[in-house]
Design goal:
With about 230 residues, the chain is mainly beta. It folds into two domains: about 10-20 and about 135-225, no CATH class; about 40-125, Cupredoxins -  blue copper proteins (Immunoglobulin-like, Sandwich). The chain has one helix at about 165-170, and strands at about 10, 40-45, 50-55, 60, 65-70, 80, 85, 90-95, 100-110, 120-125, 145-150, 180-185, 195-200, 200-210, 215-225. It starts with 7 loop residues before the first strand and ends with a strand. Residues about 1-35 have low confidence and may be disordered.
């Protein structure tokens, strides 16, 4: 399990956990990078012939994730395999909160989606030398089945809770006094899930969002059967 940070005990849920806004695209927050070619921006070119050029095979994360910059020279939309997004022709830049690790990425033009063969990929390595990322992956005990739920609201959603931790704690049942609730993802990631850590294992993850009244609400959750 990856390093956990800033735990909040269930008995002290009145502590407000502030989630900082994402960094401005042209003024990204920088974490400590290493090496002359270290960067926190992934640069991909979707070539006019449908092939992929990965200009940055390695990226170092910041406290809010990393920047993805795609230039598409295609005359049609394309998917960016491995990063779960679509792009139109031209330049697109977005903030990404993909977990650290190795990904296989490629441009995939829409006109080729009916093909049985996906395009050749390039390996992108997302590096987190400072251990900024906190995983929300469940670690249920053997034989403990997991559950999942999604919640639909009428728009706009006002929200009811002062912090993401309060929203998650109010939503879940079967919490124990020694459980720890904390933000997963990157430290400055907006609307990151709240996880429940019990005896060092992640046993629940609650998706939260900020409502129109600047208060928090629960979008959905999943967890081990011991936490509902």
């Amino acid at each position: 399990m990856r390093r956990l940070s800033s735990p909040v005990a269930v008995t002290a849920l009145t502590t407000v956990v502030g989630l900082l806004g994402a960094a401005c695209a042209n003024e990204p927050r920088q974490t400590a990078l290493s090496g002359p070619d270290a960067t926190s921006t992934v640069r991909i070119v979707c070539e006019a012939d449908g092939s992929t050029t990965l200009l940055t095979p390695q990226v170092y994360v910041r406290p809010d994730g990393f920047t993805l910059r795609v230039r598409s020279d295609l005359n049609e939309p394309a998917s960016i395999n491995g990063l779960g997004m679509d792009v139109e022709p031209g330049l697109k830049e977005t903030l990404m909160t993909t977990p650290p690790g190795a990904l296989e990425v490629a441009c995939w033009p829409f006109s080729e989606h009916n093909s049985l063969q996906e395009p050749p990929t390039h390996t992108l390595t997302i590096v987190d030398p400072e251990g900024l990322y906190v995983s929300a992956e469940l670690e249920c005990p053997p034989g403990d089945a997991a559950w999942r739920e999604a919640i639909d609201y009428a728009s706009p959603v006002k929200g009811s809770y002062a912090s993401p931790i309060d929203a998650a704690a109010a939503h879940l049942r079967s919490l124990q006094p020694t459980d720890e609730l904390m933000q997963a993802g990157y430290p400055e990631q907006q609307s990151a899930p709240v996880i429940v850590v019990r005896d060092g294992d992640v046993v629940a993850s609650v998706g939260v969002a900020l409502g129109s009244t600047r208060k928090w609400y629960v979008e959905g959750a999943h967890g081990c059967s011991s936490v509902q």
